[in-house]
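Document type: protein sequence-to-structure record

Subject area: structural biology

Format: plain text, a pair of labelled lines:
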Amino acid sequence: MIRPRALTWVAWFLYLSVLVAGLVVAASGECDALGLWGFTCGLAVAGALESVESRIPVTPSYAVAALTVRAALFAFVTALDCAGNAKLLFVLIPLTAYFTLGHRIAYGLGAAEVVLATVLVAVGPGFGGDPEAVPDLLMFAVGIGFALTLAVIAGREEAGRRRAESLLVELSDANARLAEYADQAVTLATVAERTRLARDIHDTVGHHLVVTAIQLEKAAAYRTLEPDTADRALTDGRDSARQALEQVRRAVGALHDDTDGFTLATALRALIARLRDTDFTVTLRLSGDEHRVGESVRLALYLVTQEALTNARRHSGADTVTVDVDLTARTLDISDNGRGLRPDAVEGHGLRGMRERLDLVGGRLSITTGSTGTRLLATVSAP
């Protein structure tokens, strides 16, 4: 279990309270100087132990050793405390154990401390050496129970906070992936619309052209035998040709609108605008005339860039990425300043999908990675 930062502050508060109470009593002359120095040094060492433990990972073996040292320090300080308050420090033993060794051990230590204190009261001169041993014992038991109750509440709050942080990270990843899916959905919708237009051209324009050809053949056949029939055939053929021309104009207009709606430059700028953040900067350099590049190539370059930027933000730890697109040379160069790819991840994170997309347009992908970042270079030979 994660040790909460508040535990250190609680421990320091108890140490300071015990120290102040001891110094106040010592000021009245009831303590010898050597005992006061030992009392103060013991509390200082205990406070230093808390500070060190809050800054390093706590393993079970270290936790056991630290609790043992802490118990010895508390016994030492209690023996030298003129005010008689240092015994309250023992509530920190089960409280600390709850976060370093688990709740079962913490409950066991708390019960053991209460039992030991009860035995000392029963067989000794009194818990703390005064006639108020029984009230002190009751207060000590209440303190142990209160400390463990606080530990349970703090542990649940800490676990809830970490679950919320984990869910927030997962939600951010889901949002990024959803944006990626939305981009792909737009692309698929564009392809589907163009497929529909191609089908419409075949079904409408093709039909009208077939009718026109038939009517022209009919007019030629009946030109001398039945002039009226030939004239009607010419009229019908002309009408079919006009309808075919109208259908062509509509189809071409729709295709032109779709092409204008998806340009590589616009799509890349929109993609970068979505991914750019205060801790993630993307620089785009785009050169060349994209109208001289086939649509399939532009689409492949866009999808590769989309996957690379998404991976750079989610997996590489990079805060700066450069995207250099040279449409004249048909190259895409993406570099970041992240921590690089693991050897077993070269075929992961969508890199296989990038290669497959580039293969469809006669392209290839090379990857250079190291501790200072990753570079992806895509080259395409298709027009």
